[in-house]
Every structure is written in structure tokens, then in C-alpha cells.
From TrEMBL:
Keywords: Acyltransferase, Fatty acid metabolism, Lipid metabolism, Membrane, Mitochondrion, Mitochondrion outer membrane, Transferase, Transmembrane, Transmembrane helix, Transport. SUPFAM superfamilies: CoA-dependent acyltransferases (SSF52777). It comes from Myotis myotis. One of its GO terms (cellular component) is mitochondrial outer membrane. Residues 175-692, 732-773 form the Choline/carnitine acyltransferase domain. GO terms for biological process: carnitine metabolic process; fatty acid beta-oxidation; long-chain fatty acid transport. This is carnitine O-palmitoyltransferase. Its EC number is 2.3.1.21. The lineage of its organism: Eukaryota, Metazoa, Chordata, Craniata, Vertebrata.
Length: 811
């Protein structure tokens, strides 16, 4: 959609006898500049795509090869073994004076063919190298000779100075696991949570599935696998000026988009050299999830030069660029301040319009068709925006008067909002509160946590440490009074949409009011202590969570933990089923250790549970997980109208505990030791609501194309986020589940985000939080160094046992 102020200079004036176009000089200049920008973008993308396509080679390597061939000819050598002469004979005869030119052209063509063959060989070799996953299965801290050799070869073939998408052509496709192995692993994962009778019944269904349907469904998956490719700060508010914070944040986000378009963001490398897939970065900006009657689709624009803004029930369109380029932070602050100062009221039903994006998708799809016919320009301004901005009229954030309650409210405000102040279908919504606090609400179908987190880390570091603020809290620089005012969007809402808005708002408010959030930083120990125990930090936390949940509910349950599969092309996530037999044995021992077993036996069982979790995590990352394979088989069975009772049983499972670790990827941007107040509070997601695992995807690896699972809104805040994908659920919903995410900040703090439903009589986010803290201290006491920690914490806890729940240690 064209910029509104760009169209002002071009006014066709029609008379009865002639049509005249009044072209102003500014309009002509704007047309010229817009065309110039467009060509620059196309040339830049063409050059970047070319560099990506030839990586790990470079254009200079072609010049070197051509020069070597010319030198060989000068020395009367023929490295082409006669091919250059044959090429020369095929070229047109331009006469004697051009005989030398024909030779140079023939040599250039031969050099190009040889160069292309060498690049293809490099791509094949690198893909074969990247298909090796033996390094994942080795014990922590150990490295075999084959892995050392593999690392050396990867370093040789990986080239230098990669761009964001340089490795995409060399990443292997995700394999289809053996269906027998998947079923065996599945049965192993459900054994701890099923009675003997239920397990025997499930095992019988599994054997029937392997005998009758598995081979046909697996064949389709094998065929498809060959055809398709598969942080705001916790303690610091840089400025209390809402418009200024929005100006710097929007500018920083668009700087990230600029770097993304130029592929100047470095690809993520494990161990400094194993690349991960970068495909998810493509849809961070200019992306909207469009509802459909049967399925949604993602609409992605190549460019967008405005953001959509919501404030006090009104929608605005704010241009982000001028003829000279991206608007400065101070100019953006000016535009946001104009919106804050605008006294005009919201129109009837406009205030709650965005609640439709949280409604059941078929209802929203029907209402959207009406909006498109009656308010198409306003709808396009929102859906075609780079992202959505919500200027909240209320303050939020941590307060010293009541840190625990204020932090929980902060999380809830970002996770759920009021149900009508986020456009949940946008790739993300930037929320800026009236006191300068901010965060993100992220739609989950286009990408997973690490991609959004990478963008948000860059944004927070840039807006605070690089852009900065003046002493009076405003963005640095000067306003631009000549900028056109933000454009107010007007919605012509049909009568039949009014009822849809009311229904959507009622459901959204009910869901928001039923969401219980609890956030607490655990600062008794962190990564450094776990590292000294020679254990994986993630496996340590996951095993302790099993102990905490058992104490909370008195039973074991299926547990979901997300693991990335970006080692493969277009990989998304896989499920780690963390409730293992080894973890259950450890939990039972811990509950009986004072009566029948000692600390040494509990420690041995704990190490076994950690080792088992590590094995499951590595298998999931290497494409040998359970749930995505079973889900893909289920989808194929639905497409073939084939009854598979075993797959129906798997798809109807209830996950009562969903967990995820939020990774910190750019530690160089935040100096936690010198700036301890500039720490993130991590991020979270809503309580689990069904099966298939949170984030269950279609067989293509892309979410949002099937009615698969309901995910609550995802919000980044304090440097964190949560997920949002409102979708009808075609399976039984469990209202008694927990969502738990955690982030390691520095070496000595772990921040937990816990969510559940207030309406549940079986869950309580604060109660589980206390159990998590106790479980971590109990596990730490199994180690000699951890016994001192527990004694100190227990002594302090007895003094304020009634007030400790939800407290902020050390604050």
C-alpha cells in the first residue's frame, strides 16, 4: 500500500472536456526517489542472492580461476584438455581481428563451467559433512577422533565471512525416522504415566498400527521427504517517556530489518561452525497470518514502509521513512506523541475490533471478508504494516513496593492484554506502556523462540546502549515538524460484524481473566553451579521440574519440552518427552530418601535421569524424535481417509506440563557483570491446552496451515516473549495444565515463568513456583557444594515462610 502522504502531491483533476494531471515537483521527486529505492533493493537482493548461491566460494575465486587458465595458455599449457578449443569452435566467427577475443571468451566460458562444477562439489561435500550428527551423541566434554576430523573438514569447507542465508543450500533435509523406532520410543515415553491395563491396550493399538497402516503412511512420508524441503530490562527503564521509548524501539527494530534484508546478520553456528537453518528469519517483518475457513496462510510482503499503531481504541498508520531514508528516533517519537495527544474518540465498535484476531478462526475469517469489502484500506494498512504497535494507556513493570505481584501483572499484561489491544495475527506486536516499559507479543506460526529472541536482544541493546536517550528522557536528535501527521484509520463496520466483535471480545476477556501468571527469579544458584557438577543445565532443570510437578499434583504426567531441529533445512521443533522412567525413579527415591534410601542413591538416580534426558534431547535435535513423525503420519492418514486408532489415540493425549528454555544468544550485547541491572526477565507462554505438543506443525514444517493446536499469545518482555496462535482445537482440551519456561541469566540466576488457568481446581502457578524452588534446592543438596546453599536458604526461609512465595530473592 502506497504511503498516504506520497499520494498527496499527485492530484488528477478532471474537467468536462479534458483530464489534466497536476504534477508537482515534490511528487515527481518522490516518484523518482521511490523508483530509485526500489531498484537499489532489487540490485542489493540480486547481489546478495548471488553471493549466497556461490558460497563458500566468492566472485574473486572465479577471477583467480580465469587468470590461472589465461596464464596456462600463455605458457602454452591446456588445463582444459582441449575443451576450450571446442568451445571456441562453437562460437561465431567474427573475423580475423576478433580471433583473440574468441579465445578469451572461450576461456571465460570454460572457467565459468569449471567454477560452477567446483561450487556444486563444495555444496555436496558440505551437505554430506553437515549430515553427520555423531558429535551430538558423544558424552558431555568428550570429543572422539572422528568428530575432531569432522570439525576440521567443516572448517575447511565452510568458507569465510558467511551471510545469513549462505548455508541454506548446504543444509541436509530432515530424515524420516523408522516407524518401528518411533512407535517403540513412544511406548517407552508413556509407560511411566499409564497403568498396566492402559499400557497393554495402547501397546496393542501400536502393534495393530504397525501391522496394518504404518507401511503405507510411511511410504507417503518418504516420498514427500524427497519432494519437499522440509530483552525490556527487569530493573531498569531507560526512559519514562512512552513516545520516546516507542521511537527508539521502532527505529532499532527497523535497523534490524535493514540488516536482515542485506543479510548482514551472521548465521547461528553451533560450536562456532555448525550452521543452523536461517529460513525463519525471512518472515519476521511484513508478515500477517490470514484466517481461512479451512486453513490459514501467511502473507508476507517484500517491504513495508509503515507501522500500524493502536491507542485508546483507535488505529493509526505511521510512516517510517522519508525521501532520505529511515526516520530518526526523534522523528518517530514525535509521530507517536502526536497520537498520544490526539483527543479524538474511538468510533463505535472500533475499540474492540482487534478482538476478532483472538476469535475462532472460522468466525474471524467470515468477519474479515466483510471488513475487506467495506474497510479494505484500513485493513490493508494493518495487515500490510511492518509490525503492530500498541501504545498502552496504563503503566506496567516491576515495582519495589510489591515486586512479586507487579512482576506477575507485567507478565499477564504482555501475555494476554485486554483481549482487544493486540493484532494477534501480525508477526509481532510491540507493546509500550505509559511508564516506558515495553515488550513483545509474538505470533508463533512463522517462527520459534530463538529467532524472535535474536531480534529482541538486538533491539534492546541497540535502543538502550547505542541510540540512547537525552538527559530529559527524549530520543536524541531533533523533531521534524514538516512530517505529515499519522493517518487515522477509519473502519466502516457492517452490522453483522458488530455481533462477531462482541462474541470475540467476550471470549478473549474470559481467556485473559482465566490466565494465571507467576514469574520469579531463582538466584540461589545457576549455570555456574550446575557446570561445576559436570551436568547439562537444561537436563538439570528438567529433572528438577519432574520432582516439583510430582509434589504439586501427586502424580506423573506427559511432559512436553521443545527442542529445535534447525540442524536441517527449514527445521522447526521437536518434542522431548521429559517424563522418563529414569526421572520417575529419581522422584520416588527423593520422596523416600529420608526413610529408605540415602543421598548417594538419589544422586546416582539423578545422574541416570539427566543422562536419559540428554539422550532424548540429542535424538530430537538429530531428527530422531517421536512426535513430529507421529503427527505427520496422522496427517497423511487424514488425507487418505484411513482409520488408524493408534494415531487417533496419540493425537488425543493430554499434555499437562509444557516446558521450554528461552536461550540467550547474543551474550556479547549485554555485560551482566558490569551492568547487573540490565538483565532480562525472560519470557513465557500460556498454559497448555491440548495435544500434539505446543507448536505442533504440519508435515511441511510450517505452522498455521492446519487446525492443529491452540497456543496462547506469546509475549517478549524484559527481554522475553510468549506465543500466540489462536486456533480451534480438534481434540480434547485439558484445563489443568501448566506452562513453564525458564531463562538462564548470567551464571547465578534462573528466571521462571509459570502459567495456568485460574478456573482449574488442580493447578496454582504460585504453588508450583514454590515447589520448583524447593525442588532445585533439594537436588542441589545432593551435591556437597549444594548442601551449604540449602542450609542457608532454609534458615532464611523459616523466618518468612508465609511471605516467601513469589518473592524476588536479592531484590
Amino acid at each position: 500500500m502506497a504511503e498516504a502522504h506520497q499520494a498527496v502531491g499527485f492530484r488528477p483533476s478532471l474537467t468536462s472536456d479534458v483530464a489534466e494531471a497536476d504534477l508537482s515537483a515534490s511528487a515527481l521527486q518522490e516518484i523518482y526517489l521511490s523508483g530509485l529505492r526500489s531498484w537499489k533493493r532489487h540490485l542489493s537482493r540480486f547481489w546478495n542472492d548471488f553471493l549466497t548461491g556461490v558460497f563458500p566460494a566468492s566472485p574473486l575465486s572465479w577471477l583467480f580461476l580465469f587468470s590461472a587458465i589465461q596464464l596456462a595458455w600463455f605458457l602454452q599449457l591446456d588445463p582444459s584438455l582441449g575443451l576450450t578449443e571446442k568451445i571456441k569452435e562453437l562460437l561465431p566467427d567474427w573475423g580475423g581481428q576478433h580471433h583473440r577475443l574468441r579465445g578469451v571468451l572461450a576461456a571465460a566460458l570454460f572457467a565459468s563451467c569449471l567454477w560452477g562444477a567446483l561450487i556444486f562439489t563444495l555444496h555436496v561435500a558440505l551437505r554430506l559433512l553437515l549430515s553427520y550428527h555423531g558429535w551430538l551423541l558423544e558424552p558431555h566434554g568428550a570429543m572422539s577422533s572422528p568428530t575432531k576430523t569432522w570439525l576440521a573438514l567443516v572448517r575447511i569447507f565452510s568458507g569465510r565471512h558467511p551471510m545469513l542465508f549462505s548455508y541454506q543450500r548446504s543444509l541436509p533435509r530432515q530424515p524420516v525416522p523408522s516407524v518401528q523406532d518411533t512407535v517403540r520410543k513412544y511406548l517407552e515415553s508413556v509407560r511411566p504415566v499409564l497403568s498396566d491395563e492402559d499400557f497393554d491396550w495402547t501397546a496393542g493399538l501400536a502393534q495393530e498400527f504397525l501391522r496394518l497402516q504404518a507401511s503405507l503412511l510411511q511410504w507417503y512420508l518418504q516420498l514427500k521427504s524427497w519432494w519437499a524441503s522440509n530483552y525490556d530490562f527487569l530493573y531498569v527503564t531507560p526512559t519514562p517517556v512512552q513516545a520516546a521509548r516507542a521511537g527508539n524501539a521502532v527505529h532499532a527494530l527497523l535497523l534490524y530489518r535493514h540488516r536482515l534484508n542485506r543479510q548482514e546478520i551472521l548465521p547461528t553456528l553451533l560450536m562456532g561452525m555448525r550452521p543452523l537453518c536461517s529460513a525463519q528469519y525471512e518472515k519476521i517483518f511484513n508478515t500477517t497470518r490470514v484466517p481461512g475457513a479451512q486453513k490459514d496462510h501467511l502473507r508476507h510482503l517484500r517491504d513495508s514502509r509503515h507501522v500500524a499503531v493502536f491507542h485508546r481504541g483507535r488505529f493509526f498508520r505511521v510512516g517510517t521513512h522519508s525521501p532520505s531514508g529511515l526516520l530518526s528516533p526523534r522523528a518517530l517519537e514525535q509521530q507517536f506523541q502526536r497520537i498520544l495527544d490526539d483527543p479524538s474518540p474511538a468510533c463505535p465498535h472500533e475499540e474492540h475490533l482487534a478482538a476478532l484476531t483472538a476469535a475462532p478462526r472460522d468466525l474471524w475469517a467470515q468477519a474479515r471478508r466483510s471488513l475487506k469489502s467495506r474497510a479494505g484500506e484500513a485493513l490493508e494498512a494493518v495487515e500490510g504494516a511492518a509490525f503492530f504497535v500498541s501504545l498502552d494507556s496504563e503503566p506496567a513493570g516491576l515495582t519495589r513496593e510489591d515486586p512479586a505481584a507487579s512482576l506477575d501483572a507485567y507478565a499477564h499484561a504482555l501475555l494476554a492484554g485486554r483481549g482487544h489491544d493486540r493484532w494477534y495475527d501480525k508477526s509481532f506486536t510491540l507493546i509500550v506502556f505509559s511508564n516506558g516499559k515495553l515488550g513483545l507479543s509474538v505470533e508463533h506460526s512463522w517462527a520459534d523462540c530463538p529467532v524472535s529472541g535474536h531480534m529482541w536482544e538486538f533491539t534492546l541493546a541497540t535502543e538502550c546502549f547505542q541510540l540512547g536517550y537525552s538527559v530529559d528522557g527524549h530520543c536524541k536528535g531533533h523533531p521534524e515538524p514538516s512530517l505529515p501527521r499519522p493517518q487515522r484509520l477509519h473502519w466502516d463496520l457492517p452490522d453483522k460484524v458488530h455481533l462477531s466483535i462482541a462474541l470475540a471480545l467476550r471470549a478473549a476477556k474470559t481467556l485473559s481473566g482465566d490466565t494465571d501468571c507467576h514469574v520469579f527469579p531463582f538466584s540461589h544458584f545457576g549455570k555456574s553451579f550446575i557446570r561445576r557438577c559436570h551436568l547439562s543445565s537444561d537436563s538439570f532443570i528438567q529433572t528438577a521440574l519432574q520432582l516439583a510437578h510430582f509434589r504439586d499434583r501427586g502424580r506423573f504426567c506427559l511432559t512436553y519440552e521443545s527442542a529445535m531441529t534447525r540442524l536441517f533445512l527449514e527445521g522447526r521443533t521437536e518434542t522431548v518427552r521429559s517424563c522418563t522412567r529414569e526421572a520417575c525413579n529419581f522422584v520416588r527415591a527423593m520422596e523416600d530418601r529420608e526413610k529408605t534410601v540415602g543421598d548417594s542413591q538419589c544422586l546416582s538416580l539423578f545422574r541416570l535421569a539427566v543422562d536419559k534426558h540428554q539422550a532424548l534431547l540429542k535424538a530430537a535435535m538429530s531428527g530422531q524424535g517421536v512426535d513430529r513423525h507421529l503427527f505427520a503420519l496422522h496427517i497423511v492418514s487424514q488425507l487418505l481417509h484411513l482409520q488408524a486408532p493408534f494415531l487417533d489415540q496419540v493425537h488425543s493425549e493430554q499434555w499437562q506440563l509444557a516446558t521450554s528454555q528461552i536461550p540467550v544468544q547474543q551474550t556479547h550485547l549485554f555485560d551482566v557483570h558490569n551492568y547487573p541491572d540490565y538483565v532480562s526477565s525472560g519470557g513465557g507462554f500460556g498454559p497448555v491446552s491440548g495435544t500434539g505438543g505446543p507448536g505442533a506443525l504440519n508435515p511441511d514444517g510450517g505452522a498455521g496451515s492446519l487446525h492443529t493446536c491452540l497456543l496462547p499469545p506469546a509475549s517478549w518482555w524484559g527481554g522475553t516473549w510468549a506465543f500466540c496462535s489462536p486456533r480451534p482445537v480438534p481434540f480434547q482440551v485439558d484445563d489443568h495444565g501448566y506452562g513453564v519456561s525458564y531463562i538462564f541469566m548470567g551464571d547465578d540466576t534462573v528466571t521462571f515463568h509459570i502459567s495456568s488457568k485460574k478456573s482449574s481446581t488442580k493447578t496454582d502457578s504460585h504453588r508450583l513456583g514454590q515447589h520448583i524452588e524447593d525442588a532445585l534446592l533439594d537436588v542441589a543438596s545432593l551435591f556437597q557444594e549444594g548442601q551449604r546453599l540449602k542450609r542457608g536458604c532454609r534458615g532464611r526461609g523459616e523466618e518468612d515462610a508465609g511471605n516467601r512465595r513469589g518473592s524476588l530473592p536479592g531484590h
